[in-house]
Write a structure and sequence with these properties.
single chain; mainly alpha; 19 helices; 0% strand; globular
């Protein structure tokens, strides 16, 4: 098995000292999972459920921010830290967690991460103050950091290259279902029993997803343990950051998530205020729009086949921008249509960019994916906080302005990639 197929960073010594005989390249390809093959459905369902648990826990307070603001008598900006702390914790710890997954295995790290995160999820409802709530959420985000990069690396190692975009799209689709179901459940439960019971209900759902994940996920067949030496990690990270394509993909992921984090952190405030004045349960149901993201993420592979990677990114960015502009309308149907387009564009762009990272990095895939996830969740934290501040200063138009700046950044970076690709094929 070649280093490229495993993701082990042999160029910096990140391999186990004892190796089994190397199978032929054809045997490696045949032993990987593919649609219709052994284990593929179990793997897809397991990682789908992991995605559901991750996003349900990570954003469990987002739809409840108006209630949290009222309970603790704080502003929208202060309450938004219950979201930003979780995504920030994930962003800070995703790289160290990816190093642990290189040493101890993807499945082991994902299982441990979910176990800690769901335990914290059962403690969150009992937070006596906003400060304690934010601290618990930061710890929960740090625990969840073991999921995204490890899942992407697991797929890159265990799934055939042709099926990789589709497989990652299914994992991202699980994220969208988790984000949607978490917000819908919390919205209706909170309307009857308050935000604490609502967050507790999400914790129980996440426990069920975590147990099913561990029972379903097939044991890895192509993982090879690497080193935990700091020097190895530093050199691997440095090599990834020196790659112009990876840098562009990291920036694109961060910018897409800046839009998404800002919009969905603030939308609850907009819809519970005049002129809409919707009850909390109905506001939670607005997040059924996430089903659109499930579809667009799952279709990312077909979109890339038709338009190419950069074409798909242009399409995702344009769809997101159109949704932002439509959401400025003063009627509920216009706002909902805007959310549909924002969600579809975001999930398509995210699936395309994250799968491109897995294909681009031939060594140290976990670290490459971790850097993408770190940038992605930094974007979420920035979007949540800046979007809330912009909403406080200029209303919904302020939040939209932040989103349009981020989408413009996606277009500029993708254009730079297009020009770089054209220059690379021109004769010297």
């Amino acid at each position: 098995m070649t280093p490229a197929s495993t993701g082990a960073s042999t160029s910096v010594g990140a391999v186990a000292s004892v190796r089994s005989p190397q199978p032929a390249p054809g045997a490696v390809s045949e032993s990987r999972m593919s649609p219709g093959g052994p284990g593929y459905r179990r793997m897809s369902l397991a990682l789908f459920l992991a995605g559901v648990a991750t996003f349900a826990l990570l954003y469990s307070t987002q739809a409840l921010l108006p209630l949290i603001s009222g309970d603790f008598a704080v502003s929208a900006g202060d309450a938004s830290w219950t979201v930003a702390a979780a995504t920030g914790g994930l962003a800070l710890f995703v790289l160290p967690m990816s190093a642990l997954s290189e040493r101890f295995g993807r499945r082991t790290v994902m299982t441990a991460s979910l176990a800690v995160a769901v335990t914290l999820g059962l403690l969150v409802p009992f937070a006596p103050s906003l400060g304690v709530l934010v601290a618990l959420r930061a710890l929960q985000g740090a625990a969840l950091a073991g999921l995204p990069a490890s899942a992407t690396a697991y797929l890159a190692e265990e799934v055939t290259p042709k099926a990789l975009v589709t497989a990652i799209g299914l994992f991202v689709a699980g994220n969208s279902v988790g984000g949607m179901s978490g917000r819908v459940i919390t919205g209706w439960v909170a309307q009857e029993w308050g935000w604490r019971v609502a967050v507790g209900a999400i914790g129980v759902v996440a426990v069920a997803c975590a147990v099913a994940f561990r029972l379903l996920l097939p044991a890895p067949r192509h993982f090879r343990a690497g080193s935990l030496r700091p020097g190895v990690l530093v050199r691997t990270v440095r090599d990834h950051l020196a790659n112009p394509l990876l840098r562009r993909l990291y920036a694109i992921g961060a910018l897409f998530m800046t839009v998404f984090g800002g919009v969905y952190t603030v939308i609850g405030y907009r819809l519970t205020e005049a002129p809409f004045s919707l009850p909390q349960g109905v506001v939670g149901s607005i997040f059924l729009v996430y089903l659109v993201g499930t579809v667009s993420a799952s279709a990312a592979g077909r979109l890339v086949s038709r338009l190419g990677r950069r074409g798909a990114l242009y399409a995702g960015g344009a769809t997101t921008a159109a949704g932002l502009l439509l959401s400025l309308g003063g009627t509920l149907p216009m706002v909902l249509l805007g959310l549909v387009l924002i969600t579809a564009g975001f999930f398509a762009g995210h699936a395309v960019a994250s799968s491109a990272v897995g294909k681009t990095a031939t060594v140290g895939r976990a670290q490459a994916s971790a850097l993408y996830q770190s940038a992605y969740y930094v974007g979420s934290s920035v979007g949540s906080t800046v979007g809330a501040v912009a909403f406080h200063a200029g209303g919904w138009a302020g939040t939209v302005a932040v989103g349009l700046v981020a989408v413009t950044g996606v277009a500029v970076i993708t254009l730079a990639g297009t020009r770089a690709a054209r220059a690379a094929v021109q004769p010297a």
